Amino acid sequence: MIVTTLKVNSLQKGIEKMEKLFKWTIFLSSYVPVFIMVFLNSLDSFSMKAIRKTWKLNPTFWSLLLGTSIISLIILYLWLCHLKKESESKSHKFETGILDSNDVEVLNFFVTFIVPIVSLKPSSWPSIAMNVLLLAVEGIFFTKNNTLYFNVLLIIFGFHVFSFDNQKNIVITRKQRGDFELEDTKATQMGTTNIFYM
């Protein structure tokens, strides 16, 4: 009995760690446009010579950004596919009532990302460390509050973020406000989270 309890506790801890890692990866995907802007901001001109020169400023840093971007984008894509698949497989839908648009809040959150573009110097590790600290603070807020929908890539990829029930619940959808009847909106809850998909 004790061995079984230990196994269950160990499994639960493993699941919790995976959830945290998943949330951090989704958060990092929201930084991909910033990573691109940081690179563009470091370029002298649009030429292969300028690109190579910028890459040589700090190849380790650029490699980390590139690897992080690719992995996080893949996981974001898989998450969106999972939302759609789970929504299609569930027959039970929740009445949401009137939805409020949260696209502006997502964009406002993205504005805080502009700081690294202005201040980050790729050749300076102290500058990188300062921006990693900023990233960590924002990431803690993002993951602790389960705000996976605060991701500007959702808007770039054609999704919209709505809320209902006094902004306690979030709906992610490709539909625009005019595409559905506000009095008869139904969405699928994702697991036991406050995130719904339509």
Structural class: alpha+beta
State the end-to-end CA separation.
43 Å
Extended strand count: 6
The fraction of residues in strands falls at 5-15%
Shape: elongated
Oligomer: single chain
Strand order of the largest sheet: 1-5-6-4-3-2
Low-confidence stretches: none
Q: Order of SSEs, N→C?
A: HHHHEEHHHHEEEE
Task: Determine the mean pLDDT.
Answer: 80
Radius of gyration: 20 Å
Biggest sheet layout: 6 strands, mixed
Helical amount among residues, as a percent range? 55-70%
Report the total helices. 8
Q: What does this protein structure show overall?
A:
The chain is built from eight helices and six strands, in the order ααααββααααββββ. The protein is α+β, with helices and mostly antiparallel strands and 198 residues long. It has a six-stranded mixed β-sheet with strand order 1-5-6-4-3-2. A hairpin with a 4-residue loop joins strand 3 and strand 4. It is elongated. It starts with a helix and ends with a strand.
